[in-house]
# Entry
Amino acid sequence: MHISDLAAEAGVTVKAVRYYESQGLLKPGREPNGYRTYRAEDVAVVREVKALLSLGLTAEQTYPFIECLRAGNDRADVCPASLTAYRTRIAEVDRRIAELTELRARLTDLLADAESWRTRTP
# Structure
């Protein structure tokens, strides 16, 4: 299948497929005329990468999931390395939540102080 067919079937743009390829997530074949060719299995890979990127994983963090699929598993997240990648992303989200919670508390304090000061001055 050609790149445009893969993109359409997987629900992404051709540009996204080229990006995934540049990140080493796809390894297309080449026709004699230089056109890229993809296997039917690449549709599942592209869909999985798209889903993982939407969860905030980086392209590099998707490697274990892709390797899991390529190993013949029906799901990309049943391998130990995939589970580790999930845990790593959850820890990153937890850190970000803590940072945002602290930021919100600081902003709330500043707002309360500013409102209090405003009501004290004529």
About this structure: The chain has one domain: 3-120. The chain has a mean pLDDT of 94.
